[in-house]
User: What shape does this take?
Amino acid sequence: MNNNRLYLDYNATAPVLVEAREAALAAMALNGNPSSVHAEGRDARAVVESARGDIAALIGARPQEIIFTSGGTEANILALHGARTGPLIVSAIEHDSVLVAAKSCGRTLHICPVLPNGVLDMEALDVLLDQMDAPPLVSVMLANNETGVIQPISAITERVHGKGGLMHCDAVQAGGRLPISVHELGVDLLTLSGHKMGALKGAGVLWARGSVVITAQATGGGQELGRRSGTENVPGIASFGAAARIAMETAEKTSHLADLRDMLESGLAAITSEGTVFGQDAPRLCNTVSVRMPGLAAETQVMSFDLEGIAISAGSACSSGKVRPSHVLEAMGVSHEASSQAIRVSLGPETTKEDVSRFLAAWEKIYVRHKRRMAVS
Assistant: This one.
């Protein structure tokens, strides 16, 4: 890898932390299956349970409420398919893993719209809740993966519980970037993903409140207290536990990211008034910028930045490399054309002012070159 490259795609995946890598390597040296009762198996089980405790501590939960999965996608599927309840209500800006799971579980589905700033339309939610003929399961993400917009989860949960429903929250993008307390949020189910926090890819978590019954979707082995069968990914889980510990110890290290995000957005405004930043007037993650470069397709921008040695993305990174117009932005009322011209820049703890300046110089270069081509054509 070229050491001169600049990585600004933390929302897709965070670089693996040194501590997480070391924890994974130590786990790889263990021979036992964590379900085996001999000494080697007990050693592997100890690693899994230690990580379970660390992740539970990160969100203020009990270890026995943590269910390990292969990632955030599986955890979301387990929440929507495994929590047996009535109709479903999901927000229009959810990750595809929630939207597709909601459509495929065989229950009545209602989509709740968002306001132009990307925040859930609470009045529309109230109307939907009043229409329910049975207690619903509602799924709303804590922070959006494309815009960084943060949702008022505790207020949403209060409404849902007032109708006897269950509340699921996809907190994948918030893990390690926002303080998370399942008790303050009031939710019943919550999803996390290790690789968004600097762990290895392939380990996720569904937290389920003790009173919530989860029906396993992967069956046959009885692992995870019968809620998810399959031998646990011990190295991935070990790295997830290490990343959770680091997140608790170094939360203050992300406080400078809001200043860098504001510096980036001010720099864009100084280059041109045509660049639109989406969700700017809503509470957002301190590291995320969704911006449109008018007239230039997002896919072309991603490739142009890549040639400049800068890694950014267009919308979600979970579409097998496909660049599509953003359903998140279109749900916010952004036109199909404009949404297809938006890129996402996501900063990380190691991002510096110099990195932001380099990105702005590249953005201006790409923008000016595009404007010149348009003038000639």
About this structure: The mean pLDDT is 94. The CA atoms of residues 27 and 235 lie 5 Å apart. The first strand starts at residue 6 and ends at 7.
